[in-house]
Amino acid sequence: MSTLQQRSDEELIELWRAGQQRAFEVLVGRYLTKVYDLCFRMLRSTTEAEDATQETFAAICGNIASFRYESSFSTWLYRVATNKVLDMIRKRNTRARYILPVDEPEEAAVGYEEGMSRNRGDPEATLVQQHEAETLWTFVDELAPNYRIVLLLFYREELTYDEIAEVLGVPKRTVETRLYRARRQLRQKWMEAHEVVDG
Amino acid sequence: MGCKDWEVLLYDYAEGRLSGREAEAVHNHVQQCTSCSEHVAAWMEIVRPLKDESRIEPPDQLLARVLALQSTADDARREQTGRVSSRQPKRTRVEPREQTVTDKLILRVRNIRREKFWNVVASLAAAMILFMAGQGYTVSAERWPTSVAAPVGTAGVRVIGQTMMTLGSVVEYAVVPFVQISTFAEEMIELDPREQEQETEGSTWSRNNQK
Asked: Given an 8 Å threshold on Cβ–Cβ distance, is B70 in contact with A24?
């Protein structure tokens, strides 16, 4: 008899629906960090990332009874999370444009450093590599949200073009174009930075 | 094929996502082209942190908050289930109720209202036109008695104008109460108190019926 940890997402959902609370805990354990990581890398604020993650799981809890397996559970989960973060970015941009000057940049900066510092325990990583990685993530942050989310879903969550298209509700061709542009812009920024440093 | 054309494939090539003849073609080009070779090398550097498996860990209190969501969802589900089960007997109890003559009459009115909705609208429009035409005819006959009033005479004008206006009023005053009665019937005929509550939330009628 397999343990809950070994069960597939779909099996866990069925057990959860049948009232086994432990199944929900296993699902949360499987995806909480991934969803939080995605939210944080999109929002760059610990507070907002926490809110987005909590709201994502709240939406999942509220709609699990009506989940019909039209897509995989992970695709559904990422779709909800993506909608939350893009919505938050839209609201933040509107607020910044019309009401407040900037959405607490200090908090975002501190949160970003805090978040990154949690993963700096790798003894093998050299200071140069860490610096390179941090610079790269700064460039990723500078990309438009539509490009950034495609990049994150492709490289971090390892979703296919079709899955990303499903998550974002756009044609596969759009995903390909956005990924190409994201890669290109990232490379340009990286090249410019290195030319400046080299020069 | 210039370097710009190869660029689309270089990212996937650098990440080892190409295979077969496509991979071989890109490989041959990269071997000969310094610019594309540098492009590939740069992208391999860039993509490494992107694919880094380390994750930003969520704070512990977030895990606790998310796990607590389940009990909230369970409570909501239980509440919903309870509501559904309490709703069923009400429907089965009320549905077989024998219809009184008043019920039948009201049902008839409601059916008429549903079926003849556009007729009601048309009647109202006709009443308005009739009333306006009657008034218009009377006024124009008084202003131009020789041309408008000549064929029927002054008395005739008065009769025609008044008749049209009266007809318009009658239709209008008959239709308006008809619509009101139909609406009232719509409310009265609802046999399921819960549905009634949903439709007319907070209405005195539904509150009284739930008691």
From this structure: yes
CA atoms within 13 A on the CB side of B121: 5
Instruction: A105-111: list long-range contacts, CB under 8 Å, 24+ apart.
Output: A107/A45, A107/A46, A107/A47, A108/A43, A108/A44, A108/A45, A109/A44, A111/A40, A111/A44, A111/A45, A111/A46, A111/A47, A111/A49
- Cβ contacts below 8 Å, chain A against chain B, sum to 89
Contact B137, B161 (CB under 8 A): yes
Q: Which residue has the tokens 């542009």?
A: A181
- Whether B67 and A62 have beta carbons less than 8 Å apart is answered as no
CA distance A188 to A196: 12
Q: Does A140 touch chain B (CB under 8 A)?
A: yes
Q: What is the pLDDT of residues B52-82, one digit of tens each?
A: 878 889 998 999 999 988 877 666 666 665 5
Q: Least CB-CB distance to A33: which of B48, B52, B55?
A: B55
